[in-house]
Specification:
This protein has 217 residues and is an alpha+beta fold. The chain is built from 9 helices and 5 strands, in the order βαααββαβααβααα. The radius of gyration is 18 Å and the shape is globular.
Length: 217
């Protein structure tokens, strides 16, 4: 599937998984490193490694963060894949951001684990979000993605999503939540919508799976 042309101001569902379905996060340190990369590499200004950036003056880092390539609307990080809802805010922003993120994290992961080669399953995949309804339902799917995969036990520790931001469990403004939450009376109403939407999405996925199985018989 060929990615769409990325238009500044538009919203996109961006996702990828580990090659051969392998884990891309071995532990919580990997998860936090990837999350930090989502922030550090999201700048129009040149950047080296995250290690090099750690020595920069805070004022320089703050300036970088004012010049974004993309805006995050929602995200989820799972043991072997991720989903983002992104708005491109700079021409070429999504492609540049994803190149930095994928390349930087692969270098870190390979160096740490003394391995070579690809970590992700080819270039990232993207779909244009062409309606508000699509945006709302996709936000539910992304924010509640751990429920989709029924993550539990040790695996649940290798999951991080923007849900905690949306429900106010953590005081963080990583995501631009307004475009979603302003359409609801409060955060509780949004989460009720998200849970209901997720049920519908999963039921549709099951029907589609059953239909495909029938067609193959």
């Amino acid at each position: 599937m060929k990615n769409p042309k990325f238009v500044t101001g538009e919203f996109y569902h961006v996702y990828n998984r580990g090659i051969d379905h392998r884990k891309i996060f071995s532990n919580t340190n990997d998860l936090q490193r990837f999350y930090k990369s989502m922030d550090e590499f999201n700048t129009t200004l040149p950047i080296g490694s995250i290690y090099e950036a750690s020595f920069l003056d805070p004022a320089i880092l703050s300036k970088r963060k004012r010049k974004r390539l993309v805006k995050f609307i929602a995200y989820c990080l799972n043991p072997n894949h991720y989903h983002f809802i992104l708005q491109q805010v700079t021409d070429g922003g999504i492609s540049e951001f994803m190149k930095r993120l994928g390349g930087g994290y692969t270098w870190y992961f390979n160096h740490k684990n003394k391995r070579n080669g690809y970590l992700f399953q080819g270039i990232f995949k993207a779909k244009h979000i062409n309606s508000n309804e699509y945006l709302l339902h996709l936000s539910a799917y992304v924010n509640l993605n751990d429920n989709v995969h029924k993550l539990g036990g040790a695996t649940a520790k290798l999951n991080k999503s923007s849900r905690d931001e949306y429900v106010g469990k953590i005081e963080e403004d990583f995501c631009e939540k307004g475009i979603i939450l302003e359409q609801f009376k409060n955060k509780h109403e949004y989460m009720e919508f998200a849970k209901s939407s997720l049920v519908d999405i999963l039921e549709k996925k099951q029907r589609d799976r059953e239909l495909n199985n029938l067609l193959l018989e």
